[in-house]
Amino acid sequence: MSAEELLTQDFGTLADVIREQAKALDDKPALIDARRTLTYAGLDATMDRIAAALQRDGMAVAEVAAICASSSVEYGATFFGILRAGAVVAPLAPSSTPQSLVGQLKDCGAKVFFLDHPVAQAMAGVMDQVAAKRVALDGSDAGMAFEDWLAPKGARPAPVTVDPDQGFNIIYSSGTTGAPKGIVQPHRMRWGQIRRGVYPPTSVTLISTPLYSNTTLVSYLPTISNGGTVVLMPKFDAEQFLKLSEQHRVTHAMLVPVQYRRLMERPDFDSYDLSAFQMKFSTSAPFAAALKADILNRWPGGLIEYYGMTEGGGSCGLLAHEHPDKLHTVGRPLPGHDMRLIDEDGKEVPQGEIGEVVGRSGAMMVGYHNQPGKTSEAEWWSPDGLRFIRTGDVGRFDADGFLTLMDRKKDMIISGGFNIYPSDLEAELTRHEAVLEAAVVGVPSDAWGETPVAFVALKPGAGVGADELKAWLNGKVGKTQRLADLQLIDALPRSHIGKVMKREMRDAYKGPATMA
What we know:
By secondary structure, the protein is an alpha/beta fold. The chain has three domains: 3-235, Rossmann fold, CATH 3.40.50.12780; 308-407, Luciferase, domain 3 (Roll), CATH 2.30.38.10; 412-508, GMP Synthetase, Chain A, domain 3, CATH 3.30.300.30. The chain is 28% helix and 25% strand. The protein is globular, with a radius of gyration of 23 Å.
């Protein structure tokens, strides 16, 4: 059965699809980084050697292997090789604290830990707490060298059978509100994603976000499953992204909004040949309508914004190039996705009213690893017994079925009994000619319960003062929305995929002038 035929089946495995692609594509480049290119035949053979080595080391079906390293051909192949062994991949973020990484390795029960030298250096003080066998993807002294660890050339693993509901990967949340939670995504969920058909066999996808992020995997996995080529960047750099796009005639890319902003701000952006682009994608963070419009105007190819969660559930898609009048929204629910809005009591709200977004589809997590209580908190059950995943986001559907997001539910500010949506204030602040970006958080207030405080990064050379900007904003919003304080900072703190770390700002705020 060909890869194309296999992808039409109700269920299959990505490892089997790659095997069939390798038979048909042979020496076509599958993975490219700055050092080397791995063809489909080479990828398939390397996956066999990885899977055989894992089985040699006692790895059983549904056990876990973890990876924590910069993106590389070796990383990309190892991800797939773990799957071929029937094991579960736990891609971990090198930006995590050493103690957090130890906790994640223990939580997932990793039997083998793939890492590189920088991660080993960062974890030097806690490495004695790591029980997993260590393999150095970069050949360093971080563990047994990857090439030495691999099974011999020509090795083939024992066949395995994978249940659709078995874990495909475990992705750990950022942990900004406590210990990271392991989100178990099953094979069934990933199978549905790689069959969407968004990436044709001619795709050349540039990956500039880390491979431990779901944002990346929803682009990386279907490119390979459909026979395309992936170009891997170990770290995002705007100039390098543009050079690689031109060099490799890149057709597809998944970027987070802050990356788009940095690219579009470059004075030399229009000098690069980006004519090969067919489609660009974005997810993970709020995407300003003005920035979407600029991309549509100056960057060839379409633009699709996805809204959803790593936990799965319902997702929306905005085909921005087809709906330029809906750029303020995150689009409509994808086919087969059921999305609803509920109130504080868990009851659905009427069309046009604001509520928390919940959703269900064929792409849903099994749950949080070893945390049934947290899993239950993330679920909403409809009156007819259907399981939905709660997003924690507040939004409203318009008459055309497009979803406009207000804020994270936990970020909504209740001041004197009035609901204040930070996104409203942030949007108004960014209309000021001097403002680059802004974030508004709620801080405790004896008089009002909570009150809004803004943190603002100015454009280079801007001369407006904090008090002047605060007065300007307060003159434009309602009385209940007025800022109690506004502080200027160099840049908003962000996670590895561009999400603004509001908790970090809220926790650091001690009163007027503390962060100026």
